[in-house]
Amino acid sequence: IGERPKITLLQSSKDRLRRRLKEKVPDEVTVETTSPQQNKMDKLIEILNSMRNNSSDVDAKLTTFMEEAQNSTNSEEMLGEIVRTIYQKAVSDRSFAFTAAKLCDKMALFMVEGTKFRSLLLNMLQKDFTVREELQQQDVERWLGFITFLCEVFGTMRSSTGEPFRVLVCPIYTCLRELLQSQDVKEDAVLCCSMELQSTGRLLEEQLPEMMMELLASARDKMLCPSESMLTRSLLLEVIELHANSWNPLTPPITQYYNRTIQKLTA
After folding, report:
1. CB atoms within 10 A of CB 211
2. Are 110 and 117 in contact (CB under 8 A)?
3. Which of 37, 162, 23 lies closest to 95, judged by CA?
4. In this structure, is residue 225 part of a structural domain?
5. Burial, 104: exposed, middle or buried (Cβ in 10 Å; 0-12, 13-18, 19+)?
6. What pTM was estimated for this model as a whole?
7. Among 96, 93, 27, residue whose Cα is nearest residue 65
């Protein structure tokens, strides 16, 4: 058997794998803003950049950010700037997407001058969805960041009645299918698809089971293709096993097997 070709992943994909394998994640990136109320936004950005996924004080910082935003926001323009700042950070730093989605859920019903935070957020997601092909061609990181955040918002944010936003379901299935079809950053795209299915697969299937069957059929076809890399096939096999287990966590030995395999293939 010949030597395996070396897998080259984007740094953001490596960061996601480090988190999965319990390694250290790099510090958050700085977000620039053009807000006319710079001092207020600087304070909000400082709080935003201090958040870390799964840290012991992340919920307290989410609450602090929400309170500061509510006290600082006196116009629709300011509210829009806050939404753009959170959105920009979430799509440019995939390690922040889950925390950003939790923050958006907390602030969803916040309203200024008749405009809800949630409406502005959904409009931004819709805008990026309509230009996703251009994003994929011009800025792969932004494309993957958008899909990651879209899935995290769906998995986290709820309506006032506690329901997930069904309006996001078809766009998510479309994006996940396009990830599987990507030829440019194949392993990065499959990794993104795999991780988002692990976190939102159950909820997606509950909303539109027939589309999940189609997506998994594409995943099986890709997994069985001998020209695909071992990393791609391992990631897809894990998702297929997870689905066969009704999206319940795999047993520790199986999870450890996949972690070791993925670590070896990306070393």
Report:
1. 18
2. yes
3. 23
4. yes
5. buried
6. 0.86
7. 96
Q: Tens digits of per-residue pLDDT, 139-148?
A: 999 999 999 9
Q: Is residue 169 part of a domain?
A: yes
DSSP category for residue 96:
G
Domains in the chain: how many in total?
1
Which tens digits make up the pLDDT trace of 184-220? 778 999 999 999 999 999 999 999 999 999 999 999 9
Give 3-65 as a DSSP string: PPPPP---HHHHHHHHHHTTPPPPPPPP-----SSHHHHHHHHHHHHH--TT-TTHHHHHHHH
Residue 216 and residue 242 in contact, taking contact as beta carbons nearer than 8 Å: no
Q: What is the CATH number of the domain that holds 192?
A: 1.25.40.180
Does 196 reside within a domain?
A: yes
Residue 262: domain span:
165-266
Distance CA 36, CA 56 (A): 33
3-state secondary structure of 176: helix
The radius of gyration of the chain from alpha carbons, rounded to an integer in Å, stands at 19
**Burial bucket for residue 177 (CB in 10 Å: 0-12, 13-18, 19+):** middle
Q: What is the DSSP string of 53-90?
A: TT-TTHHHHHHHHHHHHHHH--SHHHHHHHHHHHHHHH
With beta carbons less than 8 A apart as the criterion, state whether 237 and 220 touch: no
